[in-house]
UniProtKB/TrEMBL annotation:
Residues 356-706 form the Glycosyl hydrolase family 81 C-terminal domain. InterPro entries: Endo-beta-glucanase, GH81_C, GH81_N. Residues 1-61 are annotated as: Disordered. GO terms for biological process: cell wall organization; polysaccharide catabolic process. Residues 80-349 form the Glycosyl hydrolase family 81 N-terminal domain. The keyword Ribonucleoprotein does not apply. PANTHER family: ENDO-1,3(4)-BETA-GLUCANASE 1, GLUCAN ENDO-1,3-BETA-D-GLUCOSIDASE 2. It comes from Corchorus olitorius. The lineage of its organism: Eukaryota, Viridiplantae, Streptophyta, Embryophyta, Tracheophyta. GO terms for molecular function: endo-1,3(4)-beta-glucanase activity; glucan endo-1,3-beta-D-glucosidase activity. This is glucan endo-1,3-beta-D-glucosidase. Residues 33-48 have a biased composition (Pro residues). Residues 1-27 have a biased composition (Basic residues).
Length: 732
């Protein structure tokens, strides 16, 4: 029976469900300007019931006028399925496809039937740091008589991309974390390799299967070939004297260190052509690469990989002294065909992890009564999917707090408010906006985003989907919990929303791409969608990303779906550890260099190829916004995100002086005081009681609940896992 249940539950999720520059974000609280005039309501689709063949629900189909055409770069055989919109190679699919992408450890740029490779240096100051692209080497076919210049994406996976230049007989296996760039050449094609630098020396081994290039920028590059090839060179150009068919592998020698050369020699004959990541069980992610050639596979791991790499895997060997530089920290060599990664476990709970002290119930109940009394669905003026989602999630928080403090009298009003506000979006009757389905890329768009990339922060071009939908899922999960009959009635719509960014399937008849936002190599999400950026994808708010996966897990709890609980919990755990690794900047840590670390305690916007102290909607000096955007919404899982009390104290002390600036919003102050409550409850409580307003996704009730559910510091001294999963104490 248990096996049957497991198969049934797994089917629900794994089976397919039937920025020009990114808009400048205003402060993430409800704007005071009037909402746009409501558009005529959409014709309400009849809520679909799952058919006997289990076809999933789809929101009304539409054709966006602002989405680019994926057919320009994707191979035709890939277009029968939804294709990625927020991926590590997205620049290769947009406009001319010629902006670089960071595929560790190299920046790669495709243009005019050639691929340029760069081992980037970094520019650092107190405001930002980024990797500098220069064409260290460019590989291309010497004679390319055809006019076709575009590359073709012939395949992709979680950890890799195959890029073809059909007119040049070149195919590149771009596998993330490979110290080699691997190129397959067919058709006895003459090859050229150019550089913007001067070639100081050029030599080969006796078999002409390995060449060493020393450039005047102090770089040394190695070229390996599967068979003999005769190469000649001039000042900045290398050419083959005749045609070649076979494999070419190119690698930089880090710091021109000769001790690394023997390692690269040893592993040069085994090359990966693709890589997949599998969520095999809760809190476990497994990498597997398809490889060719002979010998063992050498790959590179970033710091978070190393932090959570399973020590139980005896087939994996870490080469601690083999390192490449990266904006994400040192990349360390690992030998092995597969890895197992195990993030710290987190508890996904409806209520506070440590509980609310009973003597604080009266104060919370007083605030709760006022906040619930003020709920009025007819007073909502926003039609933005983002701000609307925040409002309904705020109300859902009140329901769970009411449960926790045993004040159930307010639940009927909250339930009515949630039904009145959520149902129009699920039924298609909301006046002025709504969710639609566009099949061009495969995903949800909004009515407002059908003809303009600006509304809903670019939701119509797949920006921020996990943020917006995450708020809706939170409210849906809570309503399904307190009103199971309602939950059953709207389950198809709820799962269709979740599938937009939670789909794990790869089947050709899927309606959504696999894990739209989550990057299974970097182990966090990307919010940037179908906008071309010189620095790749980006993400601002890690806490809203955590909320998305946490809310999906809560929805799994509401529906008894163990597979959704496990998937949401695992992704939330990974997102949290990624935020702690790359967004949280600790005093004395040299991860981002002394200058940036001295001036910053948190990254504003993290890009694939850049770290920025500014936000989409605020300059770096608005530190309270930087803190707040990495905390909101305040939830039980927020204390896991900020589990390092020492860092939290550093962050608050760094932020507090900014609150003296004229015009600082009360809502942002509330987030600062919430973090202060982690280590100084009394001081924070007094400040919170004196606030005159709150963020539109927050409330006095929620802040009081947060302060009164903070535990004693001694409870936080039991390690990263035992702190939130107490049973681990009994599992040694």
């Amino acid at each position: 029976m248990l096996k049957k249940l497991s198969r049934k539950v797994k089917t629900i999720i794994t089976k397919p469900f039937k920025k020009p520059k990114k808009p400048h974000r205003p402060p993430k609280s409800q704007p005071s300007s009037p909402s746009p005039p409501p558009s005529p309501p959409m014709s309400p689709p009849k809520p679909q019931k799952p058919s006997r063949n289990n076809n999933p629900f789809l929101f009304p189909k539409a054709q966006s006028s602002v989405l680019p055409d994926p057919a320009r770069f994707f191979s035709p055989n890939l277009l029968s399925s939804p294709v990625p919109t927020n991926s590590f190679f997205q620049n290769f699919t947009l406009k001319n496809g010629d902006q670089p992408e960071y595929i560790h450890p190299y920046l790669l740029k495709s243009a005019d039937s050639s691929l340029s490779i760069c081992y980037p240096s970094q520019s650092r100051n107190s405001a930002f740091l980024y990797q500098i692209f220069v064409s260290d080497l460019t590989i291309f076919a010497t004679n390319n008589p055809t006019s076709q210049k575009n590359h073709v994406i012939s395949s992709y996976s979680d950890l890799s991309l195959t890029l073809d230049f059909p007119s040049s007989n070149l195919r590149f296996f771009l596998v993330r974390g490979s110290p080699f760039l691997t190129c397959s050449v067919t058709g006895n094609t003459p090859i050229s390799i150019s550089t913007i630098h001067a070639i100081l020396s050029f030599s080969s081994n006796s078999s002409q299967t390995k060449y060493t290039i020393k450039l005047n920028n102090n770089q040394t590059w190695l070229i390996y070939t599967s068979s003999s090839i005769s190469l000649d060179h001039s000042l900045s150009l290398i050419t083959s004297s005749c045609g070649f068919s076979g494999i070419i592998r190119i690698a930089v020698l880090p710091d021109s260190d000769p001790t690394y050369e023997s390692i690269l020699d040893q592993f040069s004959s085994c090359y990966p052509i693709s890589g997949d990541a599998a969520l095999t069980k809760p809190y476990c992610l497994e990498y597997k690469w398809e490889k060719k050639g002979w010998g063992d596979l050498l790959m590179l791991a970033h710091p978070l990989h190393l932090n959570i790499l399973s020590s139980d895997d005896s087939d994996v060997k870490v080469l601690e002294n083999f390192k490449y530089k990266s904006i994400d920290g040192e990349l360390v060599g690992i030998v092995g065909d597969s890895w197992v990664l195990k993030p710290h476990q987190v508890s996904v709970t409806w209520h506070s992890i440590k509980g609310v002290k009973e003597d604080s119930y009266p104060e919370i109940v007083t605030a709760l009564s006022k906040d619930v009394e003020a709920l009025d669905s007819s007073a909502i003026t926003t039609t933005s999917s983002y701000f609307y989602g925040k409002l309904i999630a705020r109300a859902a928080r009140l329901a769970l707090i009411a449960e926790e403090v045993c004040f159930l009298d307010v639940l009927p009003k909250i339930r009515k408010f949630l039904k009145d506000t959520i149902e129009p979006w699920l039924d298609g009757t909301f006046n002025g906006n709504g969710f639609l389905y566009d099949s061009k890329w495969g995903g949800l768009v909004t009515k407002q985003g059908m003809t303009d990339t600006g509304p809903d922060f670019g939701f119509g071009i797949f920006n921020d989907h996990h943020y917006h939908i995450g708020y809706f899922l939170y409210a849906i999960a809570v309503l399904a919990k307190i009103d199971p009959a309602w939950g059953r009635r709207y389950k198809p719509q709820a799962y269709s929303l979740a599938a937009d960014f939670m789909n794990l399937g790869r089947r050709s008849n899927s309606n959504y791409p696999r894990l739209r936002c989550f990057d299974l190599y970097k182990l966090h999400s990307w919010a940037g969608g179908l906008s071309e950026f010189a620095d790749g994808r980006n993400q601002e708010s890690t806490s809203e990303a955590v909320n998305a996966y946490y809310s999906a897990a809560l929805m799994g709890l509401a529906y008894g779906d163990t597979h959704l609980v496990a998937t949401g919990s695992t992704l939330a755990a990974l997102e949290i550890q990624a935020a702690q690794t790359w967004w949280q900047v600790k005093e004395g840590d040299d991860f981002y260099g002394e200058e940036f670390t001295r001036e910053n305690r948190v990254v504003g916007v993290l890009w694939a190829n850049k770290r920025d102290s500014g936000l989409w909607f605020a300059p770096p000096e608005w530190r309270e916004c930087r803190l707040g955007i990495q905390l909101l919404p305040i939830l039980p899982i927020s204390e896991v995100l900020f589990s390092d009390i020492g860092f939290t104290r550093e962050l608050v002390n760094w932020t507090l002086p900014a609150l003296g600036r004229d015009g600082v919003g009360e809502g942002w102050k509330g987030f600062v005081y919430a973090l202060e409550a982690i280590y100084d409850k009394e001081s924070a409580l007094e400040k919170i009681r004196n606030l005159n307003g709150h963020d539109d996704g927050n409330s006095l009730t929620n802040l009081l609940w947060w302060v009164h559910s903070r535990g004693d510091e001694y409870e936080d001294a039991c390690g990263p896992e035992g702190k939130y999963c107490w049973f681990s104490h009994y599992c040694h």
